[in-house]
């Protein structure tokens, strides 16, 4: 709990057995009240490891629904449990759980309703092992998005995020893609709905066990990001109307 606000960490898991225990060990209890893990039809011992760690809320997808589909299950479950603050943490240990108290403080003190862990603030991205082609693509896509979306972030592509539950209740995230572009669609929805976003410098970690997408899927993701930015611009200028921007309320 943080000032009577329920804090829930959600873990989108796929073949995370080798890193889940290390990630879980750094989650700052008792600040965090609940942990939810969604296993997206892993082929390893992710679920068994989660049970061994005592994770109470485990969602199992019988078929692989994708990164976005995983998050939908997690956010819906977090809202069902009455979460006030929701933090998405990758169980592959690419993002450090030690930043959770900072995220919770920013949202709990009502400074910002959304916090992103940015790998780009500072100069740690390449030093931390981010491949050069991914860094260049990140910078190009972020510039493209800032121009079309009319916002200013250091990056739109981090998977480390925290939300006030009112944000999740307001945006129509269930209309988004089940693939990796879900993250981008979600930020577009958040900005369109008028919520402010904070960024916190996050150390970058790339290693063999950390999840990553290949070049082909990276290209598909990049094209999807550009599509989302164009849709946002058209919606903002009232030249088109897309269901994903409709409020749930």
Provide a compact summary of the structure:
The chain has 249 residues and is of the alpha/beta class. It has helices spanning 17-25, 46-52, 66-80, 100-108, 124-127, 132-149, 165-170, 182-192, 215-236; strands at 7-13, 34-39, 57-60, 85-88, 114-118, 161-164, 197-201. The chain has a single domain (7-245), classed as Alpha-Beta Complex (Spore Coat Polysaccharide Biosynthesis Protein SpsA, Chain A), CATH 3.90.550.10.
Mean pLDDT across every amino acid position: 94
Strand arrangement in the largest pleated sheet: 3-2-1-4-6-5-7
Overall 3D shape:
globular
Got a strand count?
7
CATH architecture grouping: Alpha-Beta Complex
**Unreliable runs:** none
Termini separation: 27 Å
- By CATH reckoning, the class would read Alpha Beta
Helix/strand class:
alpha/beta
Number of separate structural domains: 1
Number of helices: 9
Radius of gyration: 17 Å
Under CATH, the topology is which?
Spore Coat Polysaccharide Biosynthesis Protein SpsA, Chain A
Helix content: 40-55%
Q: How many strands, which pairing sense, and closed or not: the largest β-sheet?
A: 7 strands, mixed
Please write the string of helix (H) and strand (E) elements.
EHEHEHEHEHHEHHEH
